[in-house]
Design a protein that fits this description.
By secondary structure, the protein is α+β, with helices and mostly antiparallel strands. It is built from eleven helices and 23 strands. A hairpin with a 2-residue loop joins strand 5 and strand 6.
Length: 481
């Protein structure tokens, strides 16, 4: 019998988690305490690595059709261009960042989840969780007033920065608040000197302003408002937003009526362990950080991709539960890197000293003009360079490169690894193995290097490699699980 999983929180991370588990034939319930979906745009960037992984569930084409493809990011200071970064050369089938309002992303993911048999239960709230070594007891409140305790084999908390599950577990959410207020607005506008496929960032002595295209003539605008004042940040009015645009540039832009205006402050926080027994944390429940770089939602969704295949194998009895021990170390390391990188970008953009601003602009122009730096930055932004170089799942390797934990790109336009209803490893070899193994897909791919064998994880990262004919090493690796 397959173990059951409760997913708490039905935002993009929870929907991804439920979709992946259901795709892998794991019984899953998805609950969300909100009684209706938010209609605001919120997180808007979906990067190539996330699109690759969503492609396995058939969701990517619908997302791409609904969104806006951005192929270029610009950094400007007044009329001077500091850097122009293009995504068209990225080693992925998706050579762009997709801009799509979060409410639309959620609607598409929910449709795909429902097609696999998952029903999103709105207005259903988790009140409390307790666990022993066999199960998790979840106290759940229903819209009709019922409150009852139900048992699940596993629980995945995707319930956001104020996670009920995390509070129940007494986990510390360590970090700091950046002392600065930010304004956010979605506007229809005219007079933009950049194209609809450009993400435009303008440095200014009073703080940065950034434009993200969402639809024809519609943009998300984010601007710093200065040091924090009061208990909560105050959203700018539409008139104040126009002043920010006119002052910081480009002055040619004229804002129409706002679709949505808000304000926020930036927390940089992370739990030390993404797992407590039979309970896992993913997304904002485990980590929050600056929106600089647009990595937040994607990092959370990739938490879900990482955990789903491992939990599916354990829940279906195909692998020992010890496989799950790799989830927290792998994803904590990635989360820490994202927090650090986004924080540095934010602090760099907020430099207020005029001399230091000039130095920043000059140095950034020089460094970001170097092809190796651009290549590394594109890999980081698109998340195709994200990997697990220190994972406990990494096995031996035959050559110096690629090393285990490295993302393996799709071959010859094929979709990502991990297709089908069972999370299986993929063999890349020029001859069939002398054995059958329940964790290995019957569909082989050509060897990634001459005379080598490569074994690729269900989430598309290299697990191990060996010299041609060294099937004993492959079998020994698989038998660990």
């Amino acid at each position: 019998m397959t173990d059951s999983v409760l997913v708490v929180g039905a935002g993009p991370v929870g929907l991804t988690m439920a979709l992946e588990l259901a795709r892998y034939k794991v019984p899953v319930r998805l609950i969300e305490k909100a009684t209706e979906r938010a209609g605001t745009s919120r997180a808007i960037a979906i990067w190539p690595r996330t699109l690759e992984l969503l492609d396995r569930a058939g969701a990517t084409s619908e997302l791409v059709e609904a969104g806006v493809r951005v192929t270029t990011a610009e950094i400007n200071a007044g009329e001077k261009q500091i850097a122009r970064i293009q995504f068209e050369g990225v080693e992925s089938p998706h050579k762009f960042v997709l801009m799509l309002a979060q409410n639309e992303t959620e609607a598409i993911l929910q449709r795909h989840a429902e097609a696999t048999g998952v029903r999103c239960e709105l207005g259903v709230e988790l009140r409390r969780v307790t666990q022993d070594d066999k199960a998790v007891a979840a106290t759940i409140a229903y819209p009709d007033g019922r409150v009852q305790t139900e048992s699940f084999d596993w629980v995945v908390a995707c319930d956001g920065a104020h996670s009920t599950v995390r509070h129940n577990l007494g986990m510390s959410f360590d970090g700091d608040l950046i002392d600065n207020d930010w304004g956010l607005g979605d506007f229809y506008l005219t007079g933009a000197p950049f194209g609809p496929d450009v993400l435009a960032n303008y440095f200014h002595k009073d703080g940065p302003i950034i434009y993200f295209p969402l639809a024809p003539n519609r943009y998300r605008i984010i601007a710093s408002l200065g040091p924090s004042k009061g208990d909560r940040p105050v959203p700018p009015t539409a008139e104040e937003f126009q002043t920010l645009v006119t002052t910081r540039g480009p002055a040619s832009i004229k804002l129409g009526e706002p679709v949505w205006i808000s304000a926020f402050r930036i927390n940089e926080r992370q739990v030390q362990n993404y797992r407590d027994g039979r309970i896992f944390l993913a997304g904002d429940a485990a980590h929050v950080h600056s929106p600089a770089g647009g990595q937040g939602m994607n990092t959370g969704m990739q938490d879900a991709f990482n955990l789903a295949w491992k939990l599916a194998l354990a829940a279906r009895g195909m692998a020992a539960p010890t496989l799950l021990e790799s989830y927290s170390p792998e994803r904590h390391a990635v989360g820490a890197e994202v927090i650090a990188a986004a924080g540095k970008l934010t602090k760099m953009a907020l430099i207020s000293n005029p001399v230091l601003q000039d130095i920043r602009n000059h140095v950034a122009h020089l460094i970001l003009g170097l092809p190796p730096v651009k290549h590394a930055l594109v890999g980081q932004m698109t998340e195709i360079s994200v990997g697990y170089p220190h994972s406990s799942l990494n096995g031996p390797y035959a050559n110096a490169s690629p090393k285990p934990g490295t993302r393996m790109p799709p071959i010859d336009g094929e979709t990502a690894y991990g297709l089908g209803d069972t999370p299986l490893f993929t063999l890349c070899a020029n001859e069939p193995p002398p054995f059958n193994h329940p964790l290995v897909s019957s569909a082989m791919r050509p060897a990634t290097a001459a005379n080598d064998i490569a074994l690729v994880r269900p989430d598309g990262y290299l697990a191990m490699s060996a010299r041609s004919g060294d099937w004993d090493s492959v079998r020994a690796y698989l038998d660990r699980f």
